[in-house]
Every structure is written in structure tokens, then in C-alpha cells.
Write a structure and sequence with these properties.
The complex is a heterodimer of chains A (776) and B (137). Chain A is mainly α and 776 residues long. Chain A has 32 helices and two strands. The chains are: A mainly alpha (776), B mainly alpha (137).
């Protein structure tokens, strides 16, 4: 029984992929009213993972390994511990609500099935990331999230801005994926294993290795790009071009948290070093303050939420950087707090956008009169976001201050940074959750009506949860938070989550935050002016720099491509030969002794001299003739002369093959040339001399090479072996043929396969060109 | 290029050359020859026919596009390579042989079938390339 349960973990991950494949065939039936049924997939997974919570709470770590590529040490190893469980529940839980919400949000959309397909792949990939124990499979799933999010962000693929954002996001997160691959490969080599669980025991080995810094920097690169840390944050606001359910899913609970997850996962393995902690603190703090300040200058609801998300991610990275038990606890709690309120705010924004047609915060007001349940959800989320008691957010904020206050020397500075960030986040949350619903309802919005419950219920559920958990933190204390902190390498069993800690400094700080934040909300008014003001600084923004770099890089590659891949076959041939001459020639000059055993050469006969003369005449004729056909025929003469030489040196097989190939080549040329216009003067005098010199050098090189091969003693051993064993082992008297079909038969097999591919290539190239011409 | 002499000759040359190519293919294991050369000779036979009679006529003669010979040949070669695994539980590409020689052909083994596969692929590849280029030139 236990075994079957274990096995289900792989199936659980695969469910999303299977669901997407299923949609390929059954998608059209799921587009209409049945769309809501697809929400059953994440719901089922959510219940499945919830079942584990009791065992996780008891301190169990559930792991299961399937062999995948055992020879490379790559297994599908899955581990479910506290951290994984938090993430798995967020992915499936919020996933369920997003799936349901989408059914109404994109109702009747032409490509609804496609959308669900992408969502399914994305969900499965995210589950794979947070459950993988093997870092190679973690990387594979990581890449899958980048790719599937590309499709989700660019879902409105008819808009140019949408496509651009998707490509930008893929470029940034894809770069991060490559860094991750490099990082895990080095890490795996140093640790001698690709399993994270096994790495825990070789922590010292990793920390002392010469590659430690490189590993950490590469992993940081992956996490910072994925989790939108400064200066890689700019893909996230762009990704807001996606439909709102996507923004909700990607930016509250999943995609961007993958980087945070990665850092958490590697904290016990790589953490507790100066490099690890300081870098994370600096990057996290920069991101959280920078992005929080940016929220002031936005008027688009989604833009505000995007920057406040970046800021929240900065807070998480910052907390992981602090690395104390307090800080890791705060991080675990804040992940949940943020997921709950940010998902709510996104969903609320989606409803507002869907019903009023605008997300401009300066225009929205008084919507509580027409969208009451939505208003409740928005306000509750804003409360949790602000950290007003008794919300869950209050708990989270307390823990953050607790962590910064107990952090040695720089406690004051860090606490001030945290307070500034929280004040601005509160402001952003009020803007998104309260501003649209208060004040006087503009006449233009009077006809706005409440959408289907599928849309307003999910945010309401999430917002209520944010308050409920605040009131009864014991719901998650034992089942999620304690095991999660334990999984991060600290002792988690004594952690008590409490709403009320008595009157102390932290409470005072919380009160200050709320007070100043609320004041800011009443004084500051978001305006187009502010947004325009910040736009002036755009020229030094990381996004502009990256785009400029990308543009320059494109120009550079266009230049080099034009230089090298110019479409003239004759240049390609010269370049290839020149390259070969330089490379081989260089090695030859370095290593050759030029000691040829002239005595072993056989004596020249009249026949050979005559044949070579014929060849020379043929070559000269080829070079100087004015007719294409004559040139080809002369080349044929050269080829036939070569096969004659093969005959003299008792290689009848080679001679026959050369003869047939030569015949075919000539015929082929004639067939093509027959249709071409008369000889044009392609190359001028200089080019001809250049080509001639190149050919002569190449020919000389091949000659030297051949002589070198002859003077190598190993060659004859091989020859003797084939000659002696051809009949004994392979029952053949023709050694050449025996080598081809038996001794080196697999080579021949590959060669005929390559020939086939070449023929298919020629066929499709020419035939496709014809059809496209006809179509025009 | 449709001269009567060439056309008449090609009618006789085609079967002769094909026979010759099979002869070359079969003797390959003991004397100069083999699937590759045999395949080239067979292709030359068809190309010559196309030269004399026009490509369309040769295609009509062949009925099937020569491209189909490529997968067929690959299949034959693969099966020949796999045969030792099924027949005698030996590794891939081990040569296995019939005990008694067959009249005219001689000893028959998996190597011969492999060579037949090569022969078919070579015909398919060269004819596909030549026919395609001829058509689009």
C-alpha cells in the first residue's frame, strides 16, 4: 500500500502533462461549459498533497526514486518535505482557483483548450521543480517552466507587445536555466552525487572545493533571473501582458517563486557562508527597496502589482540571505502570506479589467457599489498585505522585523530597509485592493455588473484564508511551517506562531509601518505625471540596457552571418578548405618529421606516367576552358585517370567505385548545366589566382598527409589484422568488402543512413522551393 | 538528346546493366564488387535510360518513386544486422551463415543481406538526387 502511494508522486507530476496531451484530442469538447471540469485536475492534486500533511507534520520526509538514466546518475528522484509541501500546496491550490477562474475569464475564447494545455504543462513542471531531489531532473523541470510560461505570457500572440514580453521573459529565464545547468553539473561533480539529500552530508566538501564560488554564483544567476531580482527584474512587469489568470498563477505562487525555492533548497547545502549570505542580503535588499519605490510611479493596476511582487520577492531573497532561524521562519510564512494576498489582488484586478475595461488606477473608483464581493476580497487582501491585525500578513511582518532586529551589527540598517519596503508595499496594496472600490462611482461604471461566481469566489476564498490563518495560525504551524523550517536545516519543532506577542518594539514598528503607510496612501495620489517622470530615467534602466545589448548583438550576428553565410557556394568551399589547410597545416608543421622512406616507394612505370600526364592535361583544360560542359567532361577525364591509378595499385574495388561515381557525377553535372545559360565570366583574374594558390596548397597538404600516414607503423598492423582475419572470421575473400559489411558494418550502416538523409534533404529543398513558387 | 541509336541501345543496356549490377553485388564478398558499386551501376543504368528516353518514361518504367528504395534498403540492412540477435542470440551485426552454399550464388549469410540493403539505399539515394535535380534544373 505504501509503495503504491509513493509511486503516485511521479504520477501526480505527470498528471498535468497527461492532461495537456489529452486536451490535444479532446480540447474542442472542453471549450464550452465543460471548461470548469478541468479545474478538477489541480483540485485532485491538491487533495492528494494535503493527504501527506499529517505524515510531514510528524517529521517524515517522503522520497521515491525511479531510474531514468542511471548510467549518468540521473534519476527521477522525488522528495516531499516541509518546503516542498508548502510549494506543492500553493501550486495546486492556487492552481485550482486559477483554473476555475479562467473558465469564466476566458469564456468562449477560441483557444481556451490551448490555454488550459499550457497551464497544465506549467503546473506539472512546477510540481516537478519543487519535488525533484535529483538536480538534473530539477533542471529539466525548471526549463519546462520557462518554456511553458513563454507560451502563457505570449498567449495573446496577435499583439506585438505580448510576443515581445514573452520573448524577453524567455530570454532572461532561459539564460538563467543555462546557468543552472552549469551550476548543477559542477555541483554534482564536486559532491559526487546529483541527489540533494545526499549532498547534505558532503556540505564541507562542497564549501571547501575550489569551485564553490562558481557554483554559488551560477545558482544565484538562475535564481535571480527566475525570481526577478535586480537587475534582472524587468521581464516581470513585461510579463503582465499575459491574461490575468496567468499573471496570478505565475507571479503570486509559482514561476517567480521557483527561484526562491531554489535558494531555500540549497540553503542547507551551500548556505551559511559569507558569500552566500551577503550576496543574498544585498541583492534582496536592493530589489525590495528599488521595486517598492517603483510602485509609486505606476498607474496601471497590474504594473503596481508587478513591482510590488518584485519587491516581495526581494524580501524573500533578503530573508534567505539573513539565514537565521528567525529569518527562514519569516521567509516560509511570508511566502504563504504573499501568495494568498497577491493572488487575490491579481484576481480582483482581473475582474475589474474584465468588467470595466480599464486598469487605470486614476480612473477607477467606487466599484464597491457594483462589485461588492470583489470589493470585500480586495479590501481583505489589502489588509493582509498591510499587515493589519488580525490578518496573516501581520504575523508575517512581525516575523520579518523579528529577523532583522536580531541580526547582529547591521540590525538597525536592515530593519529600516524592511520598514521602508513594507510601507511602500502597504501603499501599493491599498492602491490595488482599496482604491478602486472607495469614493464616488463614476457614471461610466454604473452599468458594470457582477460576473459569474466562478470569478469572484476564488479571490474571496483566498482573502478569507488570509484572515483565517491570521486568527488561527495553528492551522499551518505544525503541518507546514515547522517541517519547512526543519527542512531548511534549522530546528523547527519549537516554533510557535502567535498573533499577539504583547507590547514590544516589534509591535511599535508594525504600528509605525501601518501608520506611515496609511498616511502615504492619503497624501500620495497616483498620477500620469509621476509615471511620465520616471519614464525619463528609462535610458539607464536595466531593461533598456539589455534591449540595446540584444539589438547590438542582433546587428553583430547579421553582420557576421552576411560575411560568412553569404549564399555563394564558392565562398563556402574556399572557407572550408582554407580552414582545413590552416588547422591541419599548423599541426603538420608542429609534429611532422618529414622523414619519408623513399626506398619503399615502388618504381614508376610508363603507364603511371602516361596516366598522370592525362590527368594534368585534364586539369589544365578544366581550368582554362570557356565552356562549362567541356570543363565537366575534363573533370570526368581526371576522375577516370584516378581510377586507372587505383587499378595499377591493385585496388579494383576503389577503381570500380571511383569509375561509377565519376560517371554519375558527370551525368549529374550535364543534366544541370544543360539548362544553364552559357559560360559567364564569374571570376576575374585575381580571384582565379587566389583560388589556384589555395587549391595547390590544399593538394600539397593532402600529399604530405598521405605520405605521413604511410610512414606510420600502426597502419600496417591494422591492415595485417584485416587481411588475416577476413576469411577466418567473416568468410570473405575480398577484404575491402568484408571491412565494409562486417568488421566496420555499423559504420556502413550509419553511412547509408546519412546518404538517405542527404537525399531527403535534396528532395525536400528543391521540391519545397517549387511549391512555394507555385503558391505565389 | 533523344537519338535513335542511344534510345535503342538503352533498351538493351538497361537489363544488361541491371544484371551486371546484381552480379557485382553478389560477388562482392569474394571478388571486387559489393553493394555500393552495384548500386551505383544500377543507378547508372536508369540514368542512361532517362538520358535516352526522357525522365518521364523512366519514371513510368519504375512506377514507384526511387525514394522508396531508401527506407526499404535501410530496413533490409537493419534486419540483417538484427538477425543474429534473433537467430542465435549473438550481438548486433555478428555475421551468421547458412551451412550449405547455394548453387550459382554461393555462401549466403547476413552480410549478403546487409549488402543488399546497401545496394538498395544507394540506388534510392542516387536516383532521388539525380531525378530531383533534373526536374528542378
Amino acid at each position: 500500500m505504501l509503495l503504491t502511494l509513493y509511486k503516485l508522486m511521479l504520477i501526480a507530476i505527470l498528471t498535468g502533462f497527461l492532461f495537456s496531451i489529452f486536451l490535444v484530442f479532446a480540447g474542442k469538447y472542453l471549450k464550452g461549459r465543460l471548461a470548469i471540469l478541468s479545474a478538477l485536475v489541480p483540485l485532485g492534486l491538491f487533495v492528494y498533497f494535503l493527504n501527506f500533511s499529517k505524515r510531514i507534520a510528524n517529521g517524515e520526509v517522503i522520497s521515491q526514486t525511479f531510474e531514468w538514466v542511471p548510467s549518468l546518475g540521473v534519476n527521477l528522484g522525488f522528495t516531499l518535505d516541509g518546503v516542498s509541501l508548502i510549494f506543492a500546496l500553493m501550486i495546486t491550490g492556487i492552481g485550482f482557483l486559477v483554473f476555475a477562474y479562467t473558465a469564466a475569464y476566458l469564456k468562449g475564447h477560441e483557444f481556451l483548450d490551448r490555454f488550459y494545455g499550457y497551464l497544465g504543462i506549467f503546473m506539472a513542471a512546477m510540481l516537478g521543480v519543487v519535488l525533484s531531489d535529483n538536480i538534473i531532473s530539477l533542471f529539466v523541470f525548471w526549463e519546462l517552466t520557462s518554456i511553458s510560461s513563454f507560451f502563457l505570457i505570449g498567449f495573446n500572440n496577435k499583439e506585438e507587445a505580448s510576443r515581445k514580453s514573452a520573448i524577453l521573459a524567455l530570454a532572461i529565464t532561459g539564460t538563467g536555466g543555462l546557468l543552472l545547468l552549469a551550476g548543477v553539473l559542477i555541483l554534482g561533480n564536486v559532491a559526487g552525487t546529483y541527489s540533494i539529500a545526499e549532498m547534505l552530508s558532503s556540505k564541507e566538501v562542497i564549501a571547501d572545493s575550489a569551485h564553490y564560488i562558481l557554483i554559488v554564483l551560477l545558482i544565484f544567476g538562475a535564481a535571480f533571473t527566475k525570481s526577478a531580482q535586480f537587475p534582472f527584474h524587468f521581464w516581470l512587469p513585461g510579463a503582465m501582458k499575459a491574461p490575468t489568470p496567468v499573471s496570478t498563477y505565475l507571479h503570486s505562487a509559482t514561476m517567480v517563486k521557483a527561484g526562491v525555492y531554489l535558494l531555500m533548497r540549497f540553503t542547507p547545502v551551500l548556505g551559511s557562508t559569507e558569500l552566500w549570505n551577503s550576496t543574498l542580503i544585498i541583492v534582496g535588499a536592493t530589489t525590495m527597496v528599488y521595486a517598492a519605490i517603483h510602485t509609486i510611479f505606476r498607474t496601471d493596476l497590474k504594473g503596481i502589482l508587478a513591482y510590488s511582487t518584485i519587491s516581495a520577492l526581494g524580501v524573500l531573497v533578503f530573508l534567505i540571505g539573513l539565514g537565521t532561524q528567525d529569518a527562514l521562519l519569516a521567509a516560509c510564512v511570508f511566502i504563504l502570506v504573499h501568495a494568498l494576498y497577491k493572488a487575490t489582488l491579481f484576481l480582483v484586478t482581473g475582474i475589474i479589467d474584465h468588467e470595466t475595461g480599464t486598469r487605470d488606477i486614476t480612473k477607477l473608483a467606487g466599484l464597491r457599489k457594483v462589485l461588492l464581493p470583489v470589493a470585500i476580497a480586495g479590501i481583505l487582501a489589502a489588509i493582509s498585505n498591510a499587515g493589519i491585525p488580525p490578518s496573516f500578513g501581520f504575523l508575517g511582518k512581525d516575523l520579518i522585523y523579528e529577523a532583522t532586529l536580531h541580526f547582529g551589527n547591521s540590525a538597525v540598517l536592515l530593519t529600516i530597509l524592511a520598514i521602508v519596503t513594507n510601507i511602500l508595499l502597504l501603499y501599493a496594496g491599498f492602491l490595488a485592493g482599496i482604491k478602486p472600490f472607495t469614493g464616488k462611482l463614476p457614471t461610466t461604471f454604473e452599468k458594470v455588473h457582477l460576473p459569474s461566481f466562478l470569478m469572484w469566489l476564488p479571490p474571496l476564498i483566498l482573502a478569507t484564508l488570509g484572515i483565517l490563518i491570521g486568527l488561527f495560525p495553528s492551522i499551518i504551524q505544525g503541518s507546514l511551517i515547522q517541517p519547512a523550517v526543519t527542512a531548511l536545516g534549522e530546528s523547527g519543532s519549537e516554533i510557535q506562531l502567535k498573533l499577539w506577542h504583547g507590547f514590544n518594539l516589534i509591535l511599535a514598528l508594525s504600528a509605525t509601518t501601518i501608520g506611515v503607510g496609511a498616511l502615504l496612501y492619503f497624501i500620495m495620489k497616483p498620477s500620469q505625471k509621476l509615471e511620465n517622470g520616471i519614464a525619463k530615467l528609462e535610458f539607464i534602466a536595466p531593461q533598456t540596457l539589455v534591449e540595446k545589448f540584444g539589438f547590438g548583438f542582433g546587428k553583430f550576428s547579421r553582420f557576421t552571418t552576411g560575411l560568412i553565410q553569404n549564399g555563394y557556394l564558392r565562398y563556402y568551399v574556399s572557407v572550408i578548405i582554407l580552414f582545413l589547410v590552416i588547422l591541419t597545416g599548423y599541426t603538420l608543421i608542429q609534429n611532422t618529421k618529414y622523414v619519408f622512406d623513399y626506398d619503399s616507394f615502388s618504381v614508376l612505370t610508363v603507364y603511371e606516367v602516361l596516366t598522370v600526364l592525362v590527368m594534368i592535361v585534364g586539369i589544365l583544360f578544366t581550368v582554362f576552358t570557356k565552356s562549362r560542359l567541356a570543363a565537366v567532361a575534363a573533370m570526368g577525364v581526371v576522375g577516370l585517370a584516378i581510377s586507372l591509378i587505383f587499378v595499377y595499385y591493385s585496388a579494383p574495388d576503389l577503381a570500380m567505385t571511383q569509375f561509377s561515381i565519376d560517371t554519375l557525377t558527370v551525368i549529374l553535372f550535364v543534366l544541370v548545366l544543360y539548362k544553364l545559360p552559357k559560360y559567364l565570366n564569374f571570376s576575374d583574374y585575381k580571384v582565379r589566382i587566389k583560388d589556384g594558390v589555395l587549391s595547390l596548397v590544399f593538394g600539397a597538404l593532402i600529399t604530405v598527409l598521405a605520405l605521413e600516414v604511410l610512414s606510420e607503423p600502426q597502419g600496417s598492423q591494422l591492415t595485417d589484422y584485416y587481411a588475416e582475419n577476413a576469411y577466418v572470421l567473416a568468410k570473405g575473400k575480398n577484404v575491402v568488402n568484408v571491412i565494409l559489411v562486417d568488421f566496420r558494418g555499423i559504420d556502413t550502416f550509419m553511412e547509408i543512413a546519412v546518404l538517405t538523409i542527404a537525399a531527403i534533404g535534396v528532395f525536400s529543398l528543391l521540391k519545397l522551393r517549387l511549391t512555394s513558387k507555385n503558391r505565389r | 538528346m533523344k537519338t535513335i541509336i542511344l534510345r535503342t541501345a538503352s533498351d538493351y543496356l538497361l537489363p544488361l546493366l541491371l544484371l551486371f549490377s546484381i552480379f557485382i553485388l553478389l560477388r562482392g564478398h569474394y571478388l571486387p564488387g559489393g553493394g555500393f558499386v552495384g548500386g551505383l551501376i544500377a543507378s547508372i543504368a536508369f540514368v542512361l535510360h532517362a538520358f535516352a528516353n526522357g525522365l518521364e518514361n523512366t519514371k513510368n518504367l519504375l512506377r514507384l518513386h526511387p525514394g522508396y528504395l531508401m527506407p526499404l534498403g535501410l530496413l533490409v540492412a537493419t534486419l540483417a544486422g538484427l538477425s543474429p540477435i534473433f537467430v542465435e542470440n549473438l550481438p548486433f551485426m555478428t555475421g551468421i551463415w547458412f551451412q550449405e552454399p547455394l548453387p550459382v550464388i554461393g555462401m549466403i549469410g547476413s552480410a549478403l543481406f546487409f549488402d543488399i540493403g546497401v545496394y538498395l539505399v544507394v540506388i534510392g539515394v542516387s536516383l532521388t538526387i539525380i531525378f530531383t535535380i533534373t526536374e528542378s534544373a
